[in-house]
Design a protein that fits this description.
Strand content: under 5%
Keywords: DNA-binding, Transcription, Transcription regulation
Shape: elongated
Distance between the termini: 51 Å
Oligomer: single chain
Structural class: mainly alpha
Helix content: over 70%
Pfam families: TetR_C_11, TetR_N
CATH class of the largest domain: Mainly Alpha
CATH topology of the largest domain: Tetracycline Repressor, domain 2
Number of strands: 0
Largest sheet: none
Organism: Streptomyces goshikiensis
Radius of gyration: 19 Å
Protein name: TetR/AcrR family transcriptional regulator
Number of helices: 11
CATH architecture of the largest domain: Orthogonal Bundle
Amino acid sequence: MTSTPTSARRSKISPERVQEFYDAVLDQLREHGYEALTMEGVAARACCGKSTLYRQWKSKPQLVAAALRANRQGTLAAVDTGTLAGDLREAARIAAGTSGRDTRLTQALGHAVLSDEELQAALREALVEPELAAFDAMVARAVARGEIGPDHPAVEFLPAQLMGVLRIRPVLEGRYADADYLVRFVDAALLPSLGITP
């Protein structure tokens, strides 16, 4: 398979340099919000030409989504404890690991998440769809093991509930959702809704 000109250009940038670009994006996002973030500002902070950024990421939404994805620690795709209860608790711990940083960054995206279709698409591809696929895999394994029925009505709400409580606790209580809080939420709300005894 031959390399395209784009992939050849990309190979010249080290992972460390890419991380510098991402750090510049996240700093700008935290400081000024999404609307004020510009490719020019990121380039200036990362000491590179704007064209370098556009060669790697075709647009601001793609660069922001890539930076947010790289900022995540842990992945739900790796979770497989042998039980649905164990999987959901581990998913809660992983989600809690970056809840403060992720929540602040999500809040920095502000109105743009709802109004910018290109940003929505980039975030769905980079962040949302992999998590939904991981939840689907957890449920499929649970169904195969006979833990829950294939058409259990609570299943479709699992991602919204776990991710939703992660985002809303700072608004309701002024505190981020840590691992203890999220695991207790899994045991008190999610598992009973699935008919699973914690």
